[in-house]
Amino acid sequence: MKVERGFFVHLALLVVAAAFAVGVWTRDKKAAAQSQADVTVWQGRADDVERIAYEGKKKKVVLEAKKDKVGRYFIGSSEREAAAPEGEKPAEDEPQGKQVTFVSVGGAEKLAEMLAPLKALRGIGRIGDDRAAEFGLDAPEGTLTVTIKGAERRLTFGAATPGGADRYARDPGSGEVYAVKGDIFRDLDQADSRLLERDLHEWRDVDVTAAKVTAGDRSRELRRSSGGDGKKFWADPGSEGQADETAGNWMTKLDRLRPTEYLPAAPEGREVVVRVDYMGAGGALGFVELVKVPGTAGGKAEYSLLTERLRLNGKVPATLAEQVEQDLGAVVK
Fold first, then answer.
1. Distance from CA of residue 331 to its chain's centroid?
2. How far is the C-alpha of 157 from the C-alpha of 180, rounded, in Å?
3. Using CA atoms, how far apart are residues 55 and 57, in angstroms rounded to an integer?
4. In Å, what is the CA distance from 75 to each residue of 105, 140, 274, 278?
5. Per-block mean pLDDT, blocks of 10 residues, the chain (333 long)
6. SS3 of residue 290 by DSSP
7. What is the Cα Rg of the chain in Å?
8. How far apart are CA 278 and CA 234, in angstroms?
9. d(CA 129, CA 142)
10. Is the backbone of residue 156 left (phi > 0), alpha (psi -120 to 50) or beta?
11. For bias kind Basic and acidic residues, which ranges apply (predicted)?
């Protein structure tokens, strides 16, 4: 009887100890998971980001927040060093020693959301100088400075983490090292391509109910209609059930134009080729203005596009813009 009683007592103690161990293990595992997934480098709100500056080995990038009646946007500038290091070829798509201006709306807003608040993938802690090379912090790739409501926050980028997707970074103020999202570094290092705004409008195509096409002293009204299959098409106001394929094809060509670079100021000697004002159920939505600068001394003409979202004139491929200009006569007579 004593043997049986002792056996059950030990068994009960074993069960209690096992349950306690599982509880501790589960709690510690959960805490560790939370610490890895929710490490705050600094606080802040994306709407309060005023300026983002990055200085790397090969370029400097600055993004300044602006606001108008349409909403918030960023004016960016990217400056590559005048000459590439000996033995290194400069990138073909980047002018050397020249400052490039660009507009960023969606891309810069996503970057601001990643930076305020800045959440790290995991915290590494403080490291000694003897381990700096291990994280690429002995020769940093670049330094980020974010201004949030007048307060500056800094981060120094080190090497890529194993796998190359993310980056090691150090907060110079606290000395803490973190692993952060690699998109932050890539967006800054390739800002004039990754952040350059290419979307012409904030609104969607389905929001449009009408448009007015103006070319010089000529203009034409178009209505957005839909057939029995639900597909949208452009038509004359008097015959909304019948698609005008010529106008529809032309509007599609115009909508396909996308800026490849931006002009800091409106081009001199410009001629407005055409302007399209879009309307929705609630009133005016926005516009597109195609601008042409005639070539001099036999040179080719250059074209740029301006919309309510772009804010600055964005250069567009001349070949595509010429097609829009050539076909305009069939749309506005």
1. 35
2. 9
3. 7
4. 9, 26, 26, 25
5. 49 50 41 55 98 95 97 96 56 64 98 98 95 96 98 98 95 96 97 97 94 97 86 89 94 97 93 98 97 84 97 97 97 92
6. strand
7. 29
8. 12
9. 18
10. beta
11. 219-234
Which H or E element spans position 57?
Answer: none
Residues in Cβ contact with 291 at an 8 Å cutoff, skipping those fewer than 6 apart? 266, 267, 270, 271, 272, 273, 303, 304, 305, 306, 313
Cβ atoms 309, 70 nearer than 8 A:
yes
Partner residues linked to 302 by β-bridges: 293
Report angle CA 106, 112, 118 to the nearest 5 degrees.
145
3-state secondary structure (DSSP) of residue 185: helix
Question: Residue 184 to residues 52, 63, 97, 189: CA-CA distances in angstroms?
Answer: 11, 13, 24, 9
| Tokens found for residue 154 | 């800094």
